[in-house]
Amino acid sequence: MQEQIIAMISEVKDDAQLAISLNGHSSIMEDGGLDSLQLITFLLKVEERFGIEIDFEQFDFDCMESVTVFCNYISELQKTASA
């Protein structure tokens, strides 16, 4: 899942180098460098790819602290969606 998230960040930023430089410890916002519009595009791609729904009103940006933390957040959403 981490590789998929990193690939999506790289795609949204249109920067192939990000796919090489980002890892599980990378901050999505700081290291990924997403601006507000790119962030929304990224989150919509995540929803579509992983079949989840992110509640933007309740979204905790602490989930963006690292790729690993965000992957854990997605996994929890997937468990909730399939329950």
UniProtKB/TrEMBL annotation:
From which residue to which does any coiled coil extend? none
Domain Carrier: where?
1-78
- Reading the lineage from the top rank, the first entry is Bacteria
What is the protein's given name? Acyl carrier protein
